[in-house]
Amino acid sequence: MTGYVLRRLLQLLPVLLLASIGIWAMIFAVPGGPVGMILGENATPDQVAAMTAQLGLDRPVVVQYWSWLTSALAGDLGVSIHSRQTVLSLIAERLPATIQLGLASIAVGLLIGVPVAVISALSPGSWLDRTLSGWSALALGVPTFWLGILLILLFAVYLQWLPSASGYVPIWQSPLDMLRNVVLPALTLGVYVSGIFARFLRASLVAELRADYVRTARSKGLAERDVVGRHVLRNALLPFVTIVGLMLANFIGGTVVTEAVFTYPGLGRLLVQAISTRDYPLIQGCILVILVIYVFVSVMVDVVYAYIDPRIEYS
Amino acid sequence: MSGAATRALGMAKRLFRNKGALAGFAFIATVTLLAAFAGFLPFDPLAQNIVESLEGPSAAHWFGTDELGRDIMVRVVYGARTSLLTAAGAVAIAAAIGIPMGLVAGFFGGWRDAVLMRLVDVLLALPGILFAMALIAVIGRSQMAALVAVGVHGIPGFARITRAQVLSLRKRDFVTAVEALGASSTYSMFRTVLPNSWSPILVQVVVLSSVAILLEAALAFLGVGIPPPTPSWGEMLRTGKSYLYEAPYYAVLPGLVLTLTILSLDTIGRALSVVLEDRQMIGGDTKLERVP
User: How confident is the model at residue B284 (pLDDT cuts 50, 70, 90)?
Assistant: First the structure.
């Protein structure tokens, strides 16, 4: 098992290395490069030379990349040009908000998606199945930013039940306030992801229902709810874990748009703000952190899957 | 009529027996025609009229007017032009790079396959919107930036699908026959394997068009897409969001058109993949006549 985890992590190295080179090199592709970015366009040649030396840009490229990488690995992602705070502290401030929203959205997605999948799988081809498949198609096709706007219009503008802008309230501070703030963005993302969950789980349920052990279970007189609840669902949920985990990984990096709709103070909004103020150290830091989290969660998903499914071999 | 045209016609007939696909096609055709001929209509998407700002839908302005008194429906029509052009360009970029990548990786295997697929892995490791935003952060906001960002995002899809298709065709008898007859690998790759791989690639074109339109709109909504005053659906949603209390239709109507466009493409894509899979099972190796 340990060997399997290590091997999976080792496979990641080339991907992370290539991506880190891309993120590091980003700054050199910007017009004016890192020096022009700090000094502006009207800098004298002396200032440019001094800044070049100060930033260590006169060193060989490989040395520069190596020193950037080692300090990034040690947690030093530089200082934001705009706010003068360290990039790490800015990210650390926003990360809990994004994780809370991601988890809430997955919860909503499961609450909608699992029943939809189970109901359609139990009567494939029926009108109920077709209607619910239509729901999945709709959930996947409607852009989250439009759905978010519709939800704001309904719940904040007309009914005035919920705030139109969502803040971050940690759940341990006030669960009720947290709910009020997170319910609309979580519903927006949850509806979308429920489409993915429903489609995937329905397909694996339908496949499982055809398996021999289901016929055996039925022929020995087991009640249908036990057949589905005890046997089919358990087997079908195994591969489903992967999808749920991947969507969670995605949400930690990919709630950018929904955060913008609800002006939610997460990592995605930090990145959008960084891009609009051309705050490159912050842009690099955000992308690097999001990427690392995304990749590691994906690996963790594989590991958990291998752990819970005894049929998977580690070698 | 040639064989290919007959086959295409038969396929279209089967495709449009699906009512959803027919409705989707009708909607996309309408939007495309309006976008293509918008220049001939006597409306200007940039004409401002502050006196008439934020007016609700009326006979004169079907979708109402925006904060500068511009007609929202006219801007939606011109926004369609932006969306469709960006999507077409992005799909072209993704196909032009992704298909040859998958073809070479699947056909030759070995180190070429390893290197190309690692590249695809890196592209896949980044969530699409993140990659697009990083690219735009570097090269700045413009239509070209949005197009390239969305296009690069589509490369892995084409590369993987083409590679999978090539791998399954590579060992088939008709490919071996072509090679035994002395065909070069370039000939075998482009004239024998590729023409038999087109059906999943065609489905991918439709799927990616839908993704591209959504991604372009999302970028514009975040304020990093095509810069104003060029009308774009995402940008209209972004501005409309500031007027939810005064003018709810402002964000709702352009969003509705965007949503219908995406749903139409999704429906066509699903129906197409059903029809094409059918055809493959019935038709088998229809391109055997291409043996030199």
Answer: very low
Cα(B65)–Cα(B45) distance, integer angstroms: 11
Do both A167 and A244 map to the same domain? yes
Residue B283 is predicted with a pLDDT of: 34
Give the distance from residue B222's alpha carbon to the nearest chain A alpha carbon, in angstroms. 7
Domain-located, residue B118 = yes
Q: In Å, how far from its chain's centre is CA B65?
A: 29
Hey, which residues 273-302 in chain A have their CB within 8 Å of chain B?
274-276, 278, 280, 283, 287, 290-291, 294-295
**Domain check: are A237 and A127 in the same one?**
yes
Peptide bond into B200 cis (omega under 30): no
User: Can you give the pTM of this predicted structure?
Assistant: 0.84
Phi, psi torsion values for A145, nearest 5 degrees: -70, -25
Q: Which domain holds residue A71?
A: 24-76
Rounded to whole angstroms, the Cα distance separating B38 from B42 reads 9
Contact A253 B241 (CB under 8 A): no
Same domain, A72 and A118: no
Mean pLDDT of B85-104: 92
For the question of an ipTM over 0.90, the answer is: no
CA–CA gap between residue A287 and residue A180 (Å, rounded):
29
Mean pLDDT of B193-213: 86
In a domain, B244, yes or no: yes
CA atoms of B195 and B165, how far apart (whole Å): 11
CATH number at residue B24: 1.10.3720.10
Residue in the structure block whose two tokens are 């229809």? B286
Token pair 């969306």 is found at B83
